Structure to design on (377 residues):
């Protein structure tokens, strides 16, 4: 409680400090939503073998994906399904069909994307991810943001960044203490990886909880990821046309600009869903043998595919927000890209006092300051 005897200068300083805190609260407005029957309309299908991660899959075209029911919108739930082929018999030395899709649009610094998922792929040999990268240059130039990545039957998922040399995770403010690496261009570009310490962030536990929501903030101040299991999703997060990340609590993973200049190491990001099999991560015996038995390719990919019943994404929506409500987006040629095809890019936006603090809030604070001044003088 303020004292009438307190020096006016002290009170004014406190009020102005509170004013500054409000200014730093960035308001993002909805600019894009992928959901319902039109979910797949604005995504490109990566139609090629999985060369980038040496996975034992063939990523299918849009036509094959739809005709073979590897991508579709469930008519009852109205949710998007992306899955691994679990009906075909794959002969030795061949690969199994799977899906990788990328948004036709790229999103600039000053964006937030929210993915509402009810099921994520899991199982021995399975390697799903929800991530973003720049389609305008050769990877890892332009940066990669991994929001969700899991393998096999691991009890948790992970998140991280991949960049050119010079970007590190320094002094993060995050809830996870499980930091695997801090050099975002480390040995063999392993990235600066943080484990999602929530045991409902992957696998059967994710499904049993009813899924969850992944939030990514791509800002000049840094990059942050949040995860909310279904029972803990903040009220209004999935329906509001605005989002204020300062109201979400401390993120699970955080990469401040102090160790990694976002404008230097990142370009507009295209959003990606991928399901691959085995490869350099899930198929590496060092990791595969932690939760699975046998040989990744021979005992799982080859054969009738019955082990892939849980290898699917079920997504309610992907919603994208930006500090510029008119939309900081650009078309991208991501359909045939593994991270190196050209696209046009959009300029970054700078959040200003005018578009980050509601006008009524500013007026109220100024009126309060003037009223106190009149009362105390």
């Amino acid at each position: 409680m303020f004292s009438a005897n307190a020096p006016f200068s002290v009170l004014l300083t406190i009020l102005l400090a509170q004013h500054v805190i409000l200014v730093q609260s960035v308001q993002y407005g909805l600019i894009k939503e992928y959901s319902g029957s039109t979910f797949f309309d604005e995504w490109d299908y990566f139609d090629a073998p999985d060369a980038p991660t040496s996975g034992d899959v063939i990523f299918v075209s849009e036509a094959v994906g739809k005709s073979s029911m590897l991508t579709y919108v469930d008519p009852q739930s109205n949710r998007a399904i992306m899955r691994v082929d679990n009906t075909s018999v794959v002969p030795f030395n061949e690969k199994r069909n799977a899906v990788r899709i990328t948004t036709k649009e790229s999103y600039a610094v000053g964006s937030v994307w929210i993915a509402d998922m009810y099921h994520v792929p899991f199982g021995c040999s399975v390697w799903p991810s929800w991530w973003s990268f720049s389609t305008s240059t050769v990877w890892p130039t332009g940066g990669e943001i991994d929001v969700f990545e899991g393998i096999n039957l691991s009890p948790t998922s992970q998140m991280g960044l991949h960049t050119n040399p010079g970007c590190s995770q320094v002094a993060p403010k995050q809830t996870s203490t499980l930091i695997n690496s801090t050099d975002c261009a480390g040995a063999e570009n392993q990235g600066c990886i943080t484990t999602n310490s929530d045991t409902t962030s992957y696998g059967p536990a994710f499904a049993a909880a009813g899924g969850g929501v992944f939030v990514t903030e791509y800002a000049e101040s840094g990059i942050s990821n949040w995860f909310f299991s279904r029972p803990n999703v903040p009220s209004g997060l999935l329906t509001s046309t605005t989002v204020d990340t300062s109201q979400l609590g401390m993120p699970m993973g955080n990469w401040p600009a102090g160790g990694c200049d976002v404008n230097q190491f990142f370009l507009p990001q295209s959003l990606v869903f991928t399901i691959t099999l085995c490869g350099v991560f899930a198929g590496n015996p060092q990791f595969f043998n932690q939760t699975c038995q046998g040989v990744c390719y021979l005992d799982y990919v080859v054969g009738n595919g019955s082990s892939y019943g849980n290898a699917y994404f079920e997504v309610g929506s992907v919603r994208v927000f930006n500090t510029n409500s008119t939309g900081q987006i650009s078309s991208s040629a991501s359909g045939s890209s593994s991270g190196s095809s050209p696209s046009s890019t959009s300029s970054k936006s700078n959040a200003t006092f005018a578009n980050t603090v509601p006008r009524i809030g500013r007026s109220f604070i100024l009126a309060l300051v003037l009223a106190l001044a009149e009362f105390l003088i």
Observations:
- Confidence is low (pLDDT under 50) at residues 1-23, 333-377.
- Residues 234 and 293 are 39 Å apart (CA to CA).
